């Protein structure tokens, strides 16, 4: 069933059909939240909260739009609030490191060749050091494979704003990664 018709049916009182949307998007939302929070428990809690909040606000959804970017924006806002409260930087780096193989599989051929040569742990640490806005944009583009327009909607920016975040995110990630080699190769003097 087409999403807009399904949502219209839910809004018309067929609340049980909301389970179709939940089943369709529970895995992508959980995975995104896992990458953003670094905690399976937090991701599960936030995913549940995302779907509850989306249901409560479904009447504000524009039927002409795609549902996933709107749902993602809700999840991202909840994750940002959680991140501000808990500041899971260390566990986030561990989770990104553990999830990096699946992240790498989604890259384009040229980027995949570059990334494969990189040290996965260093890349995960560098990704964790990126500002949250850039990290989010990169995950949406390269892990979830979303088109630029949907990324812009999910992040609450224009399509060109999404392109800029991804471009700047890649530049910053590249610079952080390159500098990680120079700092790790410095051997302490003495003994």
Write a structural description:
The protein has 191 residues and is an all-alpha fold. It is 77% helix and 0% strand. It is built from ten helices and no strands. Helix 2 runs parallel beside helix 4 (67-86), helix 4 (67-86) packs across helix 9 (148-155) and helix 7 (120-129) packs across helix 10 (159-184).
Can you describe this structure in just a few lines?
The protein contains ten helices and no strands. It has 191 residues and is an all-alpha fold. The model is unreliable at 106-110 and 112-118 (pLDDT under 50).
Relevant terms:
191 residues, Rna Polymerase Sigma Factor, Chain: A, single chain, Arc Repressor Mutant, subunit A, 0% strand, mainly alpha
| Low-confidence blocks of residues | 106-110, 112-118
Biggest β-sheet, characterized? none
Number of strands: 0
Look up the CATH topology of the largest domain: Arc Repressor Mutant, subunit A
CATH architecture of the largest domain: Orthogonal Bundle
Ordered list of secondary-structure elements with their pairings:
Layout: H1 3-11, H2 18-37, H3 40-56, H4 67-86, H5 89-105, H6 109-117, H7 120-129, H8 132-143, H9 148-155, H10 159-184
Helix pairs in contact: 2-3, 2-4, 2-5, 3-4, 4-9, 5-7, 7-10, 8-10, 9-10
């Amino acid at each position: 069933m087409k999403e807009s018709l399904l949502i219209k049916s839910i809004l018309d009182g067929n609340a049980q059909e909301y389970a179709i949307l939940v089943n369709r998007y529970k895995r992508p939302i959980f995975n995104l939240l896992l990458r953003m929070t670094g905690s399976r428990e937090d991701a599960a809690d936030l995913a549940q909260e995302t779907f509850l909040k989306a249901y409560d606000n479904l009447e504000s959804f524009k039927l002409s739009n795609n549902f996933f970017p709107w749902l993602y924006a809700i999840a991202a806002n909840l994750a940002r609030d959680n991140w501000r409260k808990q500041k899971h930087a260390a566990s986030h780096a561990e989770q990104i490191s553990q999830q990096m193989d699946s992240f790498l599989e989604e890259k384009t051929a040229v980027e995949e060749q570059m990334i494969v040569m990189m040290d996965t742990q260093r890349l995960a640490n560098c990704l964790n050091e990126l500002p949250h806005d850039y990290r989010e944009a990169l995950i949406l583009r390269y892990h979830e494979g979303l088109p630029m327009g949907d990324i812009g909607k999910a992040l609450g920016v224009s399509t060109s704003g999404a392109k800029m975040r991804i471009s700047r995110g890649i530049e910053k990630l590249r610079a952080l990664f390159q500098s990680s080699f120079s700092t790790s190769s410095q051997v302490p003097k003495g003994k």
